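Here is one chain, start to finish.
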Amino acid sequence: MTTDRTGTCRPLTTDPEATPPIPAAGPPPAPAPAPGPAASGPAGRVTPAAGRAVSGVAGAAGADPTAAAGYRTTARRAGGPAGARTDVAVVGAGILGVLVAREVLARDPSATVTVLDRDMIGSGATRRSAGLHFPRGADETVRALAAESERFYADLHTARPDLPIHPLAMTVLAPESAEEALRESYLPEAKLRWTAELPPCVPALPERFGAWEGDGCQYADVHTLTQLLAAELRPAVSFREGVAVETVAAGPGGARLTLTGGATLTAGHVVVAPGPWLAEPAWRELVAPLRARVKKVVALHVETPPAPGDRAVVLHQEDAFLLPLHHRGHWLLSYTCPEWDADPATVEPAVTTAHLREGRALLTRYAPALAAHCRSGRVFCDAYGPGGRPLVTALDPYGRLVFAGAAGGSGYRLAPALAARAADLIPSLPSPRKATT
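Its structure:
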């Protein structure tokens, strides 16, 4: 089924030097400077003169790594050994990276796309994602992204009911005084409404609390979904798993990546979707001015099976939720863990005694029968943009490198809209876009 996705919440942007649709932590990248001495670039960086490369590796700047500004590949498949070329390279094969590749091909089926990941497809934050989508956002920008993503997933579920996307009823618990704030943060599509009926796992509410039902909630097995979507793309996309990007450089004609083992890949544009791996040497210096940070994310497993009619329970005041994972046979409790500047390469995957204590205290307040079953969980980390806003922006003056991510624990929930914003910054792609779901 082909779905016209031009009726989105913001104008399309095809100029890589225009202000990105998602605000970055600073001014947009400046136009390429005229030949001559180095000029001061955005966010305090030094922008080499035209014809020089901007690189995330110290000392890697040099001549423009691609010859022609009108660069396009001719090979239907890209991503071979040294010297390979591709129209678009996507770094990161999580849910966002795979949807970027899908979006590129939806707009231009003739484009060559290569997706690279240092690990297997969906093996990072995507593998540990709770996969809950509900129609809300802390500000207008995130609400617009959530609305666009909700339409995408609804169309995808209608077209492919076999995919692991599961509609789910939702109840929001909050102080009665928070009703106005709830209605501001939840989308009209949620149809938020007062209810006197509590979820079975919640025997009673704290004093002066209320309950609201809402529509538009669903959850997914994000790891499986990402692999299934990638499998559909494989006839047209070159996936290179277990291949790390060691350097990246950009010039007016394109970008060049050096890969594990010394291979090179030349691309018209590169979308960097690294999840929490913001500090990788290849792009650390390029990403640093965005002021994104990495935080530990903890979700606890409540080892008791949910009943068929159990619903998601959103704890508004605590920014937490209870999710019945029917496909796994247990509940999941996600709560805010205030442990910042975590390292995804070294973070301890086991839950701690403190994590369990915090989770059980929250369950005791709302769902005391579940507290004793809270015995395990998952720990990883995710990237957060300044002010809680995700980031989609050009990283170099030529608009050849695009960063997408820092979704603050909402990577699955916002991935379709973020993928579309990233594609908007690739001017060679047709617009308005058509997406095949």
